[in-house]
Fold this protein.
Amino acid sequence: MTYRTHTCGELRLVDAGKRVVLSGWVRRLRDLGSMIFIDLRDRYGITQLAFDESRSELMDAARKLGREFVIRIEGEVVERASKNPQLPTGDIEVKVESLEVLNVSEIPPFLIEDETDGGEELRMKYRYLDIRRNPVKNNLIFRSKVTQAVRNYLIDRGFVDIETPYLIKSTPEGARDFVVPSRLHPGQFYALPQSPQTFKQLLMVGGMDKYMQIVKCFRDEDLRADRQPEFTQIDCEMSFVTREDVLRTFEGLLRHLLIQFHDFDPGPFPRLSYEEAMERYGSDKPDIRFGMELADITAVAQTRDFGVFNQAEYVGAISVSGAAGYSRKQLNEITDWVKRPQVGAKGLVWVKYREDGSFKSTVDKFFTMDDYQKWAEKADAKPGDLILILSGDKDKTRRQLGLLRMEMAERLGLRKPDIFAPLWILDFPLLEWDEETGRYHAMHHPFTSPKPEDIHLLDSTPEKVRANAYDLVLNGNEIAGGSIRIHDRKLQEKMFELLGFSREEAERQFGFLMNAFQYGAPPHGGIAWGLDRLVAILAGKESIRDFIAFPKNNAGRDVMIDAPDYISPEQLKELHLEVKSPSKINN
Ligand code: ASP
């Protein structure tokens, strides 16, 4: 009648003697001739089923079962002769008295076990089978717990969960839009939101005061490892807040999550300006679980006849603790690493600070022990350390050193997944000059307000204006970012002008927002978190794909449903799009 009285993870010794009904999947069948054992699996666990010779017709039926068949059994819970302490249900088994096959299964293309033989692509193609495996299943359950905790925390603090539309027009977050052709409006398109940015601001104009939403965002970006074209944000906005109010609220949220899931209180979050982060870490998302800070050694490195340094705007160093003993091969490897196009350094100078206090370097022809001593002091190097030096354009070189710092930390195992080191990065530049287009870009987005004390620089030196923006960084990842917004029509117009929009363009694209600002827009600000990344880090993992039920692969494809795909000529026509030849469509 009913499918189950208990789940497969539930029965214990105290249940012995009970008659139960269980349903689930056949994980494994062991036929010992006079006995058959089956591991029956569902989301909650595994229960051993036992068949014995007293019911030979049942044994015959059991022998016909295959892996992943779906069955329903009735039977009696009995204490096991040989217990399995690995399994929560390992003290008991169910002596089967009736067996019903609910569904048969093909032989699965890979082992549905914690350790599987299936490669990534195969597992993605059969993701529904992958989800039956504990590692994937547990990640999804963990994600659900995190979203629940986030929602509770925010709702308890007066946030209202409000849905915003998916069929909208462009919201610039620095990526391309995914667009949806309109059938009813020939030649017109919706855009999928890169974020609900403008809507959450309009909710503030609407007086909602505190908004939150766990929401899908869509960005058509060039593919990078571990990026998803659709991803989830915890999106928030608040009215009548200063930067301090926002930082305090969301620092509270992350602390709450770290305590709830790891019993880890990170203490007050350090705050660094963008400029300081670049100077000390060569990154605007520094991992501060370890030191190895960048040292500016320009002044003490441009003292000899070494052209590479003398011509450089900046000479910077990091000191790698205990690495003075690196072999030639290891050093060559690191040199090759910094020359990779993704890093882009031209070369690497290294100085070994030997245990005996002497130095050995690639530039011994040019420099003396005294020179090295000065560098070592600046870089805070001790005997036994390896000093790595890059030089060139200041911004670029600092970034390269920042990447090298992370790489060395990775090699030395300094990025410990069970330590959490959050920090705020503040005072980003408002604008970024883009060489290619010869225009300014909003570093955050065009709705971010300048710091009030910098507004007077908007006309004269816009590149010096700092934004009232903030990023939350955790273990070297940007996990949230936001800003105090512009809420004044004039300032917003000015911003669009700086970004190279004509009046008409700005009006056509964002007139609705600027109009709203004329009807009593309150001062407001907010933040959005990358939920996928947050969950992965909280679980101590790197890949966000493992925490998404149905992710896209690195080429942006869903290999299970095979999307994107061509559509029929009829559908194209209906959408007023160019009709391609059928041969192309069957391609
Ligand atoms: N909409 C922004 C983003 O997606 C976040 C914010 O400013 O609240 O990055």
Notes: Residues 112 and 149 are 30 Å apart (CA to CA).
